[in-house]
Fold this protein.
Amino acid sequence: MFAAKYHLNMKSLLIFSLLAIGLGITKSTDAQSVIKGRVTDNKSKPLIGINITLKDTYDGATTDSSGRFSFTTTEKGQQLLVASSSGLKPFEQLLTLVKDSSYSFAIQLKEEITELKAVVISAGTFEASDKKRTTVLTPIDVATTAGANADVTAALKTLPGTQQVGESEGLFVRGGTASETKTFIDGTLVNNFFYSSVPNIAQRSRFSPFIFKGTVFSTGGYSALYGQALSSALILETIDLPEQSAGSLGISVIGVNGGIQKLTKNKKASWGFNYDYANLWPAFKVIKQRQDYMTAPEYHTGDANFRIKTSNTGMLKYYGYFSHNRLGFRENSIDSIGYKDAFRLKNLNMYHNLSWRESLGSGWKMNLGVSYAYNKDNINGNMQDMNEKDVVLSGLEWKNFGLISKGNYFNAKAVFEKRLGGISAVRFGSEYNYSQDDPNYTDHSGQSYNFSIKEHLKSIFAETDIYLTNSLAAKLGGRFEQSSLFDRSNIAPRVSLAYKTGKESQASLAYGIFYQNPETKYLRSVGNLDFARATHYVAQYLKSNKYITARVELFYKKYQDLIKTNAQNNNDNQQIASNNNGYGDAKGIELFWRDKKTIKNFDYWVSYSYLDTKRDFLNFPIAMQPSFAAKHTASLVMKKFVTAWKTGFNMTYTYSSGRPYYNIYNDNGENKFGDLGKTDDYHNVSFSLNYLPKLFNKDAGASKFTVLVLSVNNIFGIKQTYGYKYSYNGARKELIVPPSRSFVFVGVFISFGVDNTENVINNNL
Amino acid sequence: MKRIVLSLAVAVVCLAANAQSERYKAAMEKLVPAVDTTRSITGLTELANSFQRIAEAEKTQWLPYYYAALINVNSANMLFANGQTDQIDLLTDKAAPLLAKAEELQKDNSEIFCLKKMLNTAKMMADPQNRYMTYGPAAAEALAKAKQLNPENPRVYLLEGQDLFFTPEQFGGDKQEAKKRFEEASKKFESYKPEDSISPNWGRGQLSYFLSQIK
């Protein structure tokens, strides 16, 4: 029958097919090809462990110690031979396999340009993060440096390039003033990074080091993405999502703090806030201060944040900060014996930062940021008699004054990046900085003087990173700025080069021009003023591996168009900018050595800076070494963790050769020296101890963490002098010294997992 | 007729597919025993490469990706034992994408979370002082998840025991407590039946080593 016939045919067809498959299998086992060869790098050295594959088959081999490989395959026809290993550009070759043939290949693999292997453009830069190979300090290092008391900038002062200026806050870099260093958080400029100045007492930086995951400290030749800093840029990056929800509590001799950080269940967003109250009254009762405080420094500080993962690559972050602080003290007046000078300061500060970064696809990335800050200082100066009653003395009327200074600052920045094959990239964008300063000065008679300075600074910038090979890279950039206040514009080129001289060593060069507005505190009118200007030349040699970092840097910095000032109303305390005729230069050599290996559980670094600088600016009669610059500066930082005691011991020694001091007075329009000299050398030994009783505790796990901190600044009570202050007529002078010889800090900080309770409950259900 | 042709076609395809999966199984069966016995870096590199070739040819099987990642982590641990900590990152960076592929193909598997734990621990050991806060909790979390997914998995207890064994006492390590976990693992191994001849079944060799180290 029809069906039966077909059935039969089908059957035979089936048998035939099975046979065919069987034959096919035997046939292919018969046909073996041999593929062999040798893999080398571009210097003909054998490469070991390279994976050789016929793509989409199981067949292949791994190269041996001479770079050779050999395997047989039953595949035939056209096949793709692939040789690959991470960090190398894969090799691919089409080949047609014929029965029982042998194929031989000599394969040369080229290095892929990768961030891990490529040279890092590092001239002028110190990076503190846990990712980069050239990292010098990690965030933990910042927290455990003795004498730094968890102040980012204080820890940076143990690196070369910075000065040990104790009488005022800020980073004085390579002969520059503190105002020549600008700070950026998540890309945008931060105004008022430090607490408001108090005469002859250095203030801390405002922000906790624990909100930052990365720190880049450039002591010269920084990127075109940043501007308005003649000497240095401190670039801080806030943390992304926390690992887990956590709460924290702290209590110390200076105050209390508490906070919470909550990570949402889907781990895509987090929010948190902290509050900190500090009052130095109890500490000042125990540790005698030179100043007689009628109001001991008191600080209310709160911050809040949220972070949202907007996509796999995107992150939206907000950080907001609020602070109110006040202090008041009196000391014996230098201007009139038997009288006292009283100083009072109230400060209100607010800072908001919103940033968004996102990958836009096809190699494009975007970084947007805005920040707004408000600062209000309320300062009062008074002359007081022995009964601490305000008095106005004839000829010294100006010692009684009130100053209310308000500042509003808005900054916005957009940076776009496009990857250009490998890790080369081009970046460009623009920045807008708005500032409005409104000082209101009231004199002894109640007469008020108002002044307002508004600036709109607009910038555009572009730079490109070009990696020619893993060993050679260049960064070329430029920045254009336009100031509405001075009605001036500038163009600043920046260039750096880096060359890898060995597996762990590299040399780099940097050059750049940097512009900065005249400081607003010297402005009463804009007149014909222009930007001040600095040109940097930096050469660096760096050798580093996981344990040892050695760094030598040479630099030359030329200053042009610095501000010269005149004394207003013949009062030397009121200097007003008159022209840009100032100039100067700075040159030096800096050494850095860090070793974490030689002694077990012992980590130390040594910095040395030699600085030769002269400048003629402000009211200087001639070009001379400024009082904020010492010729020799050195630091030795040591950290030892004793595992058995769960305790870290940290010690820091800092040295600075004597700094010059001057009394300059105005003699009918001409600036003259009333006095000059050099201070004694400066030495400081600080000690701190961190005890972690619950470290690795099984029950507490990583979610609970307690640390006890004891720190002593200037533990040997060495006498330190910062210079002299002079009476208004130059007739008397008095040493400027720290408010107390030593300072002791004791505190306990606890962090605990907020999710922990939930886990415990879930595990027991 | 049409139906017959169709079923024939299906039969042929199935046969071919079966031959394919037989081939896969055979290739894997040849390599899997080596997971427990390979002790040299070069041997491990070769083994990882072989698994990776199978993984990339098959594309839909999670096991070869899993083994390729596992062998790279084992190499990293061997480097740590040799004191070559600066090369650990190279291997963990190789292992991470392979493990991610395995997890894409096989979600919520206890073995994958065990390996995740091992990968995080290896990353931590490359620089414990700076990485303890990041990779420590990640490793602990992965191991807890592995236990939750399959409390009968003997490798969970082996890894728990290893943590207690290697952690110094003042940091919460405890050799006697470690012994208890190893004994637990040993018990679990007795009743443990791998799903098939190529599913994860490693760890007995390591276990007897650790048991012999604790008196």
